[in-house]
Specification:
single chain, Lysozyme, 165 residues, 7 helices, disordered C terminus, mainly alpha
């Protein structure tokens, strides 16, 4: 996991930096950069080569319905009604990250009933949907997420804001 652990801070840093200049607009940003990176790792291994397969697209594996529920963000001046608006956005890591932020703003809740809304809740919402997040997360997905979060919460990460200079 050593090589993967170097990749995640880079991805997190890139998501943070480009979200500042992205042509898309997230309403709010409830999900931290580390949480986004760990969701990416858990859902796809942050595989940027996978475009659209099986009704999901991009490294966050976002469906059309998820994208629509998040406000149909687009790149540039593209119309949300364009046939390519959905795949263009969710295959772009920054537009996809803003899509997740909007989705969590809309559906954020305490899925595991621990009294806080945190990355575990956002990951459940991302994987199981805004109305199904109280269900059981797939074991492999949860394990990768948990390992990633614990690794980064123990101080084994780059401070992307300090390295952004």
């Amino acid at each position: 996991m050593a090589n993967k652990n170097l990749y995640i801070p880079t991805l997190i840093g890139a998501i943070f930096l480009l979200s500042l200049i992205s042509t898309t607009t997230a309403q709010e940003k409830p999900v931290t950069d580390i949480c986004l990176g760990c969701i990416c790792e858990a859902i796809s291994g942050c595989n940027q080569t996978a475009i659209c397969t099986g009704g999901v697209c991009g490294l966050f594996r976002i469906t059309w319905a998820y994208w629509a529920d998040a406000g149909k963000l687009t790149l540039g001046n593209e119309s949300p009604e364009s046939d390519q608006a959905y795949p263009n956005c969710v295959n772009d890591p920054y537009c996809a990250a803003d899509t997740i932020q909007n989705y969590m703003t809309r559906f954020g809740q305490d899925c595991n009933n621990d009294g806080v809304i945190d990355c575990y809740d956002y990951a459940a919402i991302h994987k199981l949907g805004g109305y199904g997040c109280k269900g059981d997360m797939p074991h492999q997905y949860y394990q990768v997420l948990d390992t990633c979060l614990k690794y980064h919460q123990s101080g084994n990460h780059l401070d992307v804001r300090n390295n952004a200079k």
